[in-house]
Structure formats: C-alpha cells, structure tokens
Design a protein that fits this description.
14 strands, alpha/beta, single chain, Rossmann fold, 21 helices, 4-stranded antiparallel β-sheet, 6-stranded mixed β-sheet
C-alpha cells in the first residue's frame, strides 16, 4: 500500500478547510529556497570576478539577451540592462537586499504554512473527538458503556495524538518540501547534469547503506530479547537459594550460565553492529565526497568550459537543500508508519454498523407499571468471556433492590442493561412487556436515572445540575427542602456562591474534596437530590464507599426508601451494610451466574457466599493485618 495515502481520510475531512491558503504559502516557501540559492550564486560571481560576468556570444544570439549571469552549464540568469550597467558595489547592495527580502518572505511563508497546518489538524482532531462521542453513545446501545470507556481511553490518549502528529507533519511537508526538493534538484541539474546525478546516486547509496547496517529486524529483536533474558536471570537468582537447598547438582548454576552466555551473545552482536556503523558510513561518505571533489575539480580545471566556483557554490547549496528536503520526507514516512495504524483504528471505530435500529422504528415508554423482566439473558465481553449467564429476574416497582456480586463487571453490566447499554447475546430485557431493543434511547432516558458515587456532576452550577432535563417547574424552596432533607444544604451554603457555585466532574481529590469544595459523599447526595426532584420510575444507584464515621441514620438510604415507596424501582450497588439490611430484596451473583435472591437475613442463613462477601466487604476490621 502507498504509505503516503494512509492519511487520506482525515485529510479529506470537511473540517480540513483552507487548502488554497495553505497551498499558496507552501508554494511560496518551496520555491523561495531555489531562488535564494541563485541570488547567493550571483553574489559569489560578483565577488569572484569583481563584476557580473557577461553572457557568451552564442547564448546572446540564441536568447537575444545581452546581460545574463552564467552559473552552470545550462544555468544562465538574465538580468535587466539597468542593473547590469551599475557599479559593482551597487549591484552587490541590491543583491544583498533582495536576498534579505526573499529570506524574510521564506520565513514568513514557513510560519504561515506551519500555522495553517496546525490549524487544519486541530480542526480535524476536534471534529474526530466529537464524532467519537456520538459513536460511543451509539455503540453503547449494543456493546455496553464499559466497553466504550476503555476504547475511548485508547483512542483519545494514544491514537488521536498520534494521528494529529502525522497529519500536522503531512501538511508541513506536503507540498512544501516536495517543491523544495524538486526545485533544488532541477537547479543542480542545470548547473551540471553529471555532477548532480553523481551526488544524488551517492546520497541515495549512503542512505541505503545506513538503513541496511542499522538492520531494524536485528534491533527490534535485541530490544525484545535482551530484557527477557535479564528477567530470566533475575528469576534464576531469586530461585538459586531454594535450588541450593534441594541439592540440584548445579542445575541452577548451569541454567544461569546458559542465560548469561545468551545475554553476552546478544549484547556483543548489538555492540558490533553499532560499533561498525559510523566508521563504515564515514568511509563510504569519504569515498562519495572524494568522487564529487574529483568531478568538481575536473570541471573547474577544464578551462573556460569548466565549472566556476560560483557555480560550484550553487550546486553545493542546491544539493544540501535537496538533502534536507529528502530528510523531511523520510521523517514523514517514518511518522506515517505510526500514524497510519492510529488512523485505521480511529476510522474503524467510527464506522457505522447496522446492528442498531433506526430511531424512527423505535417506540416510546410511559413509565413503569408492572415489572422489569430479564429472561435468560447472557452477556459476553469482546473476548467472549461471560459477564452474565442465563440470568432471569423480575423486578417490580415500589421496591428497593440491592445487587451484590463477586465481580464488579457483572453487577455494573446488569445496571447498564437496564439503561439500554449493551446487547445480550441471548435473552431479552423488557419493561412492561416492551423489549428494550424497541424503545427509543431518549424515551428510555426519561424513565431511568443513574446515580453514580460522584453524582455524576457536569460543568455548570449546582442548580443547573439538579434541574437538568426536568420538564416540570420546581420552586426553589422545593430544592432547598430536598437538600435539607439530605443534610447537605448547610454545606452548600458555605461554598463561595451557594447553589450557583460552579461544579464539574471529579478530576482530583485532595483531603477528600475536589477543587470545587465538594466531597465525594456530597456529590452522591446531589445525585440523590436530583432523583428526588425528577422522580423517575427506575433509579439505578452505585453507592460510594461508606464514610469513616458511623451513620446511625443514613439520609441517602432514607431518600431511596422514600423513592421506592412512591412507586419507583430502585436498584442499588451497595457499599454500606445498612443498605443491605434495609433492602426489600438482595440479588446475589457469583461471577456471571445468579446464585441467590431474598432478604438480607434470609441469605445470611442460606448462603455461604453471601456471608463471605459480607465479611470481605463490610467487616470494619477487614483492613487490619493479622499477627
């Protein structure tokens, strides 16, 4: 596959606008260097001869121009008569001013080209972030929310930055460096065809020799093998005392010596390759330079038809600029190896599948009247590992249900299924006899509310977080009553702006509080308060760790019981023993399997696993180490 076509998709994004502006400055920058080299050649000719050398009679007859500067076999630069008739110092002054002006234009064009490249890249990457969000919401309906979280972490932390680096480098190198390379190679060929060809062949040969001697396969193997051997040596040293007690007859020493010899061979091979790399390259470079000097000397010593020193300067500068441009293209090729994988991963994730029904085919939902039923539901992760296996449950309104299990992924996935995230491999999830596959996500979102340990809270004021999505009007006094009922209103009034204090997602907790002054438990209480104001028919809650001080009367638990009594189904993932004791029903999972249902006391009497989990999770002395 053509490596330079790997970023075609992000380069042709609609947000990657401004190509005309970008190409204009790229062309200016690309052609400024060959023009500048010609100006330097003219300055060198003026200094060398004391005046600009006039054109040959044959060239004057062919072109009709009596004033031109010869800088190579086919490189004759015509100059205006007004310039040619000036004094040499005036000519030198004008040439220097022109060179400075072109240098300034080149630098400005490079800056504008870089600015345009970075701007276009940022717009594309920003758009891809937004598309990732939309696709994650869509994929969550069939694959589950937890899978999107881990995938998004890889895409945003690794793949998108790698794509951005490659895309920005592409815009900076293409077409600027290509034009510079082409212009300088043509300039070198015009000065002297054979010397230019010899220089290009020599440079390409040196690069191939360098690539061959570095032997990427060997380096990759050594980087893999040497750490592995060292790990085995460490393991053998750790096992050696035990082996000595077993009187293994020197087997440990023999194994250690064998690994040590293998390490020595790999290190010696690595050192040998690195040690001869630069001497061989320097010798090959010396041969290439000697050939170029011989060719250059033969031209200079040839007489009037030979290559002049100004022409030699132009040739040398043109070849140097060509080498620099070729190095930039090589850097782009190396970066594209990494960016192409990131690009493929991103656009593979963004592909729209056909596994989600179009929204116009889905139905609404008018609350919960009878039950939420899961019948023979089986769910697997991407690797085929069971998360839920043949799970059958019937959850009724006006009940507080706890889900406790040995695997957090299974209990979390159960709540995600009720939120419409994840598509079971087998079985069906229904609300009042309507399959969740047939319910519109927006309709389901109005009936189901998620309460996380941190709220969740998003960027906005506390009031905005509590009222978000609320269709009915709520008096501010009702909001204050709810917060007072939870015992959090006084804490909020101590914040800088009270209910209008700006809050956001938790990014860092210091002394148990985030930067906005709210503790994790306070955030959870705000999530409970939101549910009390909205009164959805289905509430799914995950408790934060229990506070260090014992709460004889947990206001959050009391609020959840109030919600259940008002007709809601409240499903909670407990972290507090009081919650288990007060629940109407506990659902017990062992890995992917349902192994028990009933009240707290009933399960304590009938299930060894439940007693064990209670000891592991809720025993206040579980963190103390024994003697």
């Amino acid at each position: 596959m053509n490596r330079f076509a790997t970023l075609a998709q992000p380069r042709h994004e609609a947000t990657s606008s401004g190509s005309a502006f970008h190409w204009f400055w790229a062309i200016i920058a690309g052609f400024s260097v060959p023009i500048l080299i010609v100006i330097f050649g003219m300055v060198a000719a003026l200094i060398e001869y004391g005046e600009l050398p006039r054109t040959t009679a044959s060239f004057a007859r062919e072109t009709g121009n009596q004033h031109s500067v010869e800088l190579g076999t086919y490189l004759n630069i015509p100059v205006p008569s007004a310039f040619a008739t000036q004094a040499p110092f005036a000519q030198l002054t004008e040439l220097v001013i022109i060179a400075i002006a072109i240098s300034g234009i080149f630098c400005f064009a490079v800056w504008m080209n870089r600015r345009s490249s970075d701007h276009r890249t940022r717009e594309v990457v920003k758009n891809l972030h937004q598309r990732l969000l939309q696709q994650s919401l869509r994929r969550a309906e069939s694959e589950g929310a937890a899978a999107q979280r881990s995938r998004a972490r890889q895409l945003i932390s690794n793949d998108l930055p790698e794509l951005g680096i490659g895309l920005s480098l592409w815009h900076r190198v293409i077409p600027r460096s290509v034009l510079m390379l082409g212009g300088c190679v043509v300039l070198a060929l015009l000065v002297n065809v054979w010397l230019a060809i010899l220089a290009v062949i020599s440079g390409a040969g040196l690069w191939r020799l360098y690539s061959w001697m570095r032997s990427p396969d060997w380096l990759q193997m050594s980087r893999f093998e040497i750490p592995k051997i060292r790990e085995r040596l460490v393991s053998l040293i750790g096992d050696a005392p035990m082996m000595a007690r077993l009187q293994a007859g020197g087997l440990a020493d023999q194994a250690f010596q064998a690994e040590l010899d293998a390490l020595d061979r790999w290190v010696a091979g690595d050192d040998a390759r690195r040690g001869r790399l630069w001497p061989v390259l320097m010798f090959a470079g010396s041969i290439a330079i000697a050939l170029l000097v011989m060719g250059l000397g033969a031209n200079i010593l040839h007489g009037q038809q030979g290559l002049s020193l100004p022409a030699s300067l132009v040739l040398g500068l043109a070849l140097t600029a060509s080498a620099f441009s070729a190095a930039r293209l090589s850097e782009l090729a190396r970066q594209l190896r990494r960016s192409s994988r990131a690009c493929e991963s991103i656009y593979l994730y963004l592909q729209r599948g056909d596994d989600v029904a179009p929204s116009e085919r889905l139905v609404g939902l008018a609350g919960l009247r009878e039950s939420v039923d899961l019948r023979d539901v089986s769910l697997q992760d991407a690797g085929g590992k069971p998360i839920l296996r043949d799970l059958s449950l019937s959850l009724r309104p006006k009940s507080l249900v706890a889900v406790l299990g040995t695997d957090d992924v299974s209990t979390q996935s159960l709540t995600e299924l009720l939120m419409g995230f994840g598509r079971p491999q087998r079985g069906i999830v229904e609300i009042d006899g309507i399959s969740l596959r047939d319910v519109h996500p927006q309709a389901l979102a109005k009936q189901v509310m998620w309460i996380a340990p941190d709220g969740p809270l998003w960027e906005g004021t506390i009031t905005e977080n509590l009222m978000a999505g609320l269709s009915k009007s709520v008096d501010k006094r009702d909001m204050v009553n709810v917060l007072e009922e939870l015992g959090i209103y006084e804490q909020i009034t101590r914040l800088s702006d009270g209910l209008e204090t700006m809050v956001g997602p938790v990014t860092d907790l210091r002394d148990g509080r985030s930067s906005d002054g709210l503790s994790m438990n306070a955030r959870y209480m705000l999530g409970i308060a939101r549910a009390l104001l909205h009164r959805p028919p289905i509430i799914l809650a995950k408790e934060p760790p229990a506070p260090t001080e014992h709460l004889s009367n947990d206001p959050c638990l009391k609020a959840m019981k109030t919600l259940a009594a008002s007709g809601a189904l409240v499903l909670v993932l407990p972290h507090r023993l009081q919650t288990l004791r007060q629940c109407d029903r506990v659902v017990l999972l062992n890995g992917a399997n349902l192994v028990g249902e009933g009240g707290h006391t009933e399960l304590l009497n009938s299930s060894d696993l439940y007693r064990h989990l209670n000891y592991l999770l809720f025993n206040p002395y579980r963190h103390r180490s024994g003697n």
